Write a sequence for this structure.
């Protein structure tokens, strides 16, 4: 349910402070940022957000993302009894 | 793609799988009596099949595909009401792509479009409001569909319509909330679920606390999970660890997106526009107490049903189809004897086969044939 | 041209239609055969047989909405489509006919732009538009502008490309990224509001296919238009009775198309292309095919994406080695929110 894609806020609409441009992979789309902005919209520029149906729903916590990845990297490679992976 | 590709890394998938194999041995689950995890959310169902995760897991782990797909639980009669409104000459009916092929008794919205109804596909509810401003001589109806993830966007769109005094914009409200749905599922007598993968994107709105009743009253672990392969596999490791350590908690694997308290602003706009009251009927699930979502009095003027008064349609699901059993984990799509025969994506009996997130469509689309 | 819009008179054999033919079509498509103004183009057979011993003949109609899109328009498409249909059979495309069905009220500017774009594309592809027809229908009887092009080309005697030649173990090769045209059109048609580096890949492929004729071991070619690469794989599989296995990690995708597919929940394999050819070649010749493609600007991102299997199914091998059946979609891809 609910496709959400991490996008980067690249600009705030000077005429409508709830409207911003979000970008992913060179694709831009107008998104509504009222659910993630707390008054200082300009501070959102450069911030990653989770976009669903044209609305920024959540600020992406880059530190948390980093921690998740660190935890994944730290996992000790156990005896891989997973022969089904990566068939020739 | 940033924040996506890092979570698809094959090496990490491999090591997570060996973690899963190791941890499952520390539990009492067997191939005969496997751990049954319900992924509530259709997005998880989609990812599990797309990446073939179910085939990489040991036989002691089985997925039950849950009801978290707003299109799958759409009652037929509601589609018929939408079509009735869409066919009015003064209406432009705006819908997300997901709902456009769901069959009602009178066909689908796509069929209505082929017959001349103005049915527009939109990406965002805001686009429907723009269409309303561009077409002052038309009435624009937005099909408000989805769980709490989509509700704030529809709520903000309605707030904007009110602020800008746009009077030719209406919402056909078909929203559904997750907690009553889960409660009704858990109260099903013969339900076979040991643990839940919580819906990641829905939880960024409501947070993780609302799921605590699942642990407290029903003693089943919940891990709120992201949608990438390593997210889902890591969540399974977390579930297994809980069983191995005899714990029962709500955990949050998707911290990069989901704050435990959710998004208070999103909850506030939902409460400003919608009212949760009354029982509603859902496809395959029957009547769910307190699952009704409507526009409140302040926004009554925008309520498409109040304005257009479509005929109330009650359409019973085909008794041969087992959509409800599939949704509640009582049977697998393959055990429904219509599956793949009378019921295919081309001639769907139920929304589970129409919606690309439906368990049946996913089974059908990603089914495994003979090895190449 | 004095009129600002097309009227029924432009299709009625009156002086208005003469003016349209002379001042727009003949002047833009400029060639000796068209200039004779006969009801048929009279083509020298000697001229054709000098290049081969089989005539390739193809037709296609173009009804795209919107008429103009990033990377092309209906006119460019009408030339590329038929040129490519001829070229994938191994033919040198030579002559085209074009039929216009115009809705009354179409602006003359739009028609002029479309026609000039056709002339430019035909020149680039080395083909001549030698005969044509114009009909104007009342408002509402057609959507703005429909174009039909038919074409003939010559296949050299040394070539025998075709689906029956496909064998188990052959490689599946594509000349570049998937889905650019389909995603661009979806965004324009449904007004999804996505901006950025989105552009149709609409282009004549005959120059690229010229590089392939000398290579021994090419079995067959097909341009992956409607239904995308997925549809072509199914056509191949049904025709030869073998299976097709493609690997997700090998599919060339442009960054914006990947972004769109993630945003809208779509699969690039099902998106239409207008400048992509899928090639089946023997395993031995695959490296040569790849080199030949990469030596041409339209093949710089060429890739081997899979192989032909004994089991007659179309499969996709996922990122982690799990194979799944790739069904033909029941309908055009539409954006999803969930």
């Amino acid at each position: 349910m609910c496709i959400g894609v991490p996008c980067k806020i690249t600009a705030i609409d000077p005429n409508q402070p709830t409207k911003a441009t979000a970008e992913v992979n060179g694709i831009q789309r107008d998104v509504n940022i009222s659910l993630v902005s707390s008054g200082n919209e300009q501070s959102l520029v450069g911030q990653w957000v989770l976009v669903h149906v044209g609305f920024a729903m959540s600020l992406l916590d880059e530190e948390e993302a980093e921690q998740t990845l660190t935890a994944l990297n730290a996992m000790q490679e156990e005896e891989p009894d997973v022969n089904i992976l990566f068939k020739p | 793609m940033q924040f996506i590709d890092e979570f698809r890394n094959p090496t990490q998938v491999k090591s997570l799988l060996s973690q899963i194999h190791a941890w499952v041995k520390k539990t009492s689950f067997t191939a005969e009596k496997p751990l049954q995890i319900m992924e509530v959310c259709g997005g998880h169902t989609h990812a599990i099949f797309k990446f073939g995760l179910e085939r990489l897991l040991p036989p002691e782990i089985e997925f039950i595909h849950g009801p978290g797909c707003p299109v799958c639980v759409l009652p037929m009669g509601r589609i018929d009401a939408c079509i009735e409104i869409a066919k009015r000459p003064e209406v432009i009916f705006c819908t997300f792509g997901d709902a456009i092929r769901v069959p009602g008794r009178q066909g689908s919205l796509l069929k209505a479009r082929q017959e001349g109804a103005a049915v527009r596909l939109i990406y965002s509810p805001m686009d429907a409001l723009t269409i309303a401003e561009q077409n002052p001589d038309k009435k624009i109806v937005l099909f408000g569909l989805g769980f709490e993830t989509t509700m704030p966007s529809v709520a903000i769109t309605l707030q904007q319509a009110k602020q800008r005094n746009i009077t030719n914009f209406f919402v056909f409200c078909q929203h559904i909330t997750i907690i009553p749905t889960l409660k009704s599922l858990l109260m099903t007598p013969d339900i076979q679920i040991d643990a839940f993968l919580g819906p990641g994107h829905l939880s960024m709105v409501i947070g993780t606390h609302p799921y605590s009743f699942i642990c407290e009253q029903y003693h089943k672990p919940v891990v709120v999970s992201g949608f990438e392969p390593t997210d889902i596999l890591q969540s399974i490791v977390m579930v297994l660890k809980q069983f191995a350590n005899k714990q029962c908690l709500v955990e949050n694997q998707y911290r990069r997106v989901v704050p435990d308290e959710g998004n208070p602003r999103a909850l506030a706009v939902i409460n400003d526009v919608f009212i949760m009251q009354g029982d509603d009927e859902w496809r395959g699930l029957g009547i769910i107490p307190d699952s009704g979502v409507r526009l409140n009095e302040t926004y009554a003027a925008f309520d498409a049903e109040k304005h257009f008064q479509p005929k109330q349609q009650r359409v019973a699901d085909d008794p041969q189809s087992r959509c409800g059993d599939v949704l509640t984990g009582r049977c697998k799509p393959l055990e429904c004897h219509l599956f793949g025969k009378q019921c295919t994506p081309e001639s769907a009996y139920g929304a589970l086969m129409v919606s690309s997130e439906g368990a049946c469509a996913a089974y059908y689309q990603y089914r495994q044939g003979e090895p190449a | 041209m004095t009129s600002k819009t097309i009227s029924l008179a432009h299709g009625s054999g009156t002086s208005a239609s003469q003016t349209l033919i002379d001042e727009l079509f003949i002047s833009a498509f400029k060639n000796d055969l068209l200039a004779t103004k006969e009801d048929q183009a009279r083509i020298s057979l000697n001229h054709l047989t000098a290049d081969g011993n089989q005539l390739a003949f193809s037709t296609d109609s173009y009804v795209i909405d919107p008429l103009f899109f990033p990377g092309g328009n209906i006119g460019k498409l009408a030339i590329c489509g038929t040129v490519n249909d001829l070229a994938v059979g191994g033919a040198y495309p030579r002559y085209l006919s074009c039929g216009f069905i115009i809705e009354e009220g179409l602006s003359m500017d739009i028609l002029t732009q479309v026609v000039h774009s056709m002339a430019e594309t035909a020149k680039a592809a080395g083909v001549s538009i030698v005969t044509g027809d114009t009909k104007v229908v009342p408002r509402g009887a057609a959507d703005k502008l429909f174009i039909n092009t038919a074409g003939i080309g010559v296949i050299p005697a040394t070539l025998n490309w075709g689906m029956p030649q496909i064998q188990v173990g052959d490689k599946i090769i594509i000349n570049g990224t998937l889905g650019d045209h389909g995603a661009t059109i979806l965004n324009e048609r449904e007004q999804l509001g996505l901006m950025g580096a989105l552009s149709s890949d609409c282009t004549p492929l005959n120059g690229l296919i010229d590089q392939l004729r000398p290579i021994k071991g090419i079995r067959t070619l097909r341009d992956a238009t409607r239904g995308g690469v997925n549809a072509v794989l199914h056509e191949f599989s049904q025709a030869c009775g073998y299976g097709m296995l493609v690997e997700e990690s090998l599919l060339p995708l442009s960054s914006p198309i990947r972004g769109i597919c993630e945003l809208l929940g779509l699969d690039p394999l099902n998106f239409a292309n207008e400048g992509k050819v899928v090639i089946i070649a023997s395993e031995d010749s695959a490296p040569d095919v790849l080199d030949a493609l990469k030596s041409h600007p339209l093949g710089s991102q060429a890739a081997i994406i899979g192989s032909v299997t004994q089991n007659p199914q179309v499969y996709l091998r996922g990122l982690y080695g799990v194979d799944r059946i790739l069904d033909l979609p029941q309908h055009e891809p539409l954006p999803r929110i969930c």
